[in-house]
Amino acid sequence: MTVLYWIDLFGVAVFAMAGAIEAARNRFDLFGVLVLAFVSALGGGTLRDLLLDVTPLAWIGDLTLAYVALISGFAMFLLAKFVPVPFRIMLYADAIGLAAFTVSGTQAAIALELPGLVVIMMGMASGIFGGILRDIMANEIPLIFRRDVYATASLVGAMWVHFSQQLGLSTNVSIVVGFTLITAIRFAAIKWHLSLPAFLNTTSYRKENHPREL
Amino acid sequence: MTVLYWIDLFGVAVFAMAGAIEAARNRFDLFGVLVLAFVSALGGGTLRDLLLDVTPLAWIGDLTLAYVALISGFAMFLLAKFVPVPFRIMLYADAIGLAAFTVSGTQAAIALELPGLVVIMMGMASGIFGGILRDIMANEIPLIFRRDVYATASLVGAMWVHFSQQLGLSTNVSIVVGFTLITAIRFAAIKWHLSLPAFLNTTSYRKENHPREL
Amino acid sequence: MTVLYWIDLFGVAVFAMAGAIEAARNRFDLFGVLVLAFVSALGGGTLRDLLLDVTPLAWIGDLTLAYVALISGFAMFLLAKFVPVPFRIMLYADAIGLAAFTVSGTQAAIALELPGLVVIMMGMASGIFGGILRDIMANEIPLIFRRDVYATASLVGAMWVHFSQQLGLSTNVSIVVGFTLITAIRFAAIKWHLSLPAFLNTTSYRKENHPREL
């Protein structure tokens, strides 16, 4: 369980940083940065706890999570004052956070002995919702919908954690491999612009050709 | 109660399809489509369950709902690969889902013996929030705020279900009539562009004339 | 406790008005206005109750809150039909609501004997989330991220309420001073355009220079 905790803390730190970078692009001030860092880092887990009616919320029960989120966001705020932080870094930080939270969310649902489909969806929800909240607050289409192989990576990792433990793999090995797997898939997708078949290819479907007022 | 369940399932299916069409307009990939379909179809009911502290959530207690949402979204993903799906179809699907969820949400609140105002607001919240989440995630102003006679249709239907049962009408009749009523109002509004008085008529109020930096 | 209740009711009324004005700028119809007014006025408190697992929600347990939100939103709808309502009024209404909800949220968390950090964060969450929901629904970047000294004002007020009571100040005095403090900070910031150091100053970081497609 300790391995899971460290992965979770690591995820909180990097997601807070990704939130801070997103805030940078939108030129928020210090406390705006901290709010976005906090919501990014703890939003996915909070949603999972709400959906599963877990009380108290993870970050209320263990304030270390909250402190790590705030300190990481603040550190990135300072860092970005002095060093240019390219947007690409945000994509990689987001990928690591996605991996960490998918894995820890899946494990939390397994511990509650929920059905397999729910386990996998809770893993995905934990992984993707922090980033969705971050992007919605910055008035962007969430990264999950803009970047390819994003939900896919989370799905693959959540399925791995679920099924590998069903087949008897030890929790720690399952978690570490799942975390590595998601991170690797997303890193590869970012680096080589991998993509799944898009929903529609024809340009006739582009939004600008389908205005609301028809 | 069976009638209600079938209406609810039907609502899940068409809202998932509406979500998938919205995703199409934004060119999401397969799993992005499924995420948006799922959130659209089950978001309103999930919010209602959270607000009323119902545990477990409807779709965790009955996985059929989750499967119907995912399969409907996937079917629409495939369909739209081969057949053009005009945006107008999304409006009609959204209308049916709005009707189904308003009715089932109202009935769920009646079953908990809540006060009338809460019953009606829970019905509306169930009906409108799936669509609001869908549109927020696609970075649009929610349909409820862009289209006329939307919240109104939901309100009328929720009030009908509440008051007709207060006056002794049987649940099934009340539900079916309420569902038909909301659907009819929205279909008429879509077809003939019906509208309530707008908040402001003068063009001097348009947003472009009131930039943030004043 | 009565003082707190009146501050809370006052916050509901002005936040509902702020939501109605935001709706005006986006030309919503009557029920769209009421939905946005309701979500603005009661969204922050609802989130707090969900996060702290308080049942029933404040506005379900006390319908006065719901009625005040709806009536205030409706009154603003009527008013704006006849009188021009400048956007600046919305900023001031938002400031008063921020103050009221930060104070009442902090006090609610103190009553649950939560740790200091959680008390302060719940105060802030209660204060800022109604406005965040309002702006997200209107497809804007939330005011908290656009306006300076916003999260800061809420933070200062929440810390004041928490620490002043830790030091033995009576609840009522602490609340009233905290409310006044937040309102004063925000009013001053609106009037004189005060600001904290921005996250980044160099124009090289502007979003338009960092498109998604890199």
Q: Brief description of this entry?
A:
Three copies of one chain form a homotrimer. The first copy, chain A, has 214 residues and is an all-alpha fold.
Structure report:
The structure is a homotrimer of 214-residue chains. With 214 residues, chain A is an all-alpha fold. Chain A has helices at 2-25, 30-51, 58-61, 63-82, 87-111, 116-137, 143-146, 151-166, 171-192. In chain A, α2 packs antiparallel against α6, α5 (87-111) packs antiparallel against α6 (116-137) and α6 (116-137) packs antiparallel against α8 (151-166). The longest helix of chain A has 25 residues, at 87-111. Chain A is globular. Chain A starts with a helix and ends in a 22-residue tail after the last helix. Mean pLDDT of chain A is 87; it is low at 200-214. Chains in contact: A-B, A-C, B-C.
**Stretches with pLDDT under 50, minimum 5 residues of chain A:** 200-214
The overall strand count of chain A is: 0
The largest sheet of chain A, given as strand count, sense and whether it forms a barrel, is: none
The number of helical elements of chain A comes to 9
Helix content percent band of chain A: over 70%
Oligomer: homotrimer
The greatest interface between two protein chains, and residues involved on each side, is: A-B, 38 and 38 residues
Distance between the termini of chain A: 55 Å
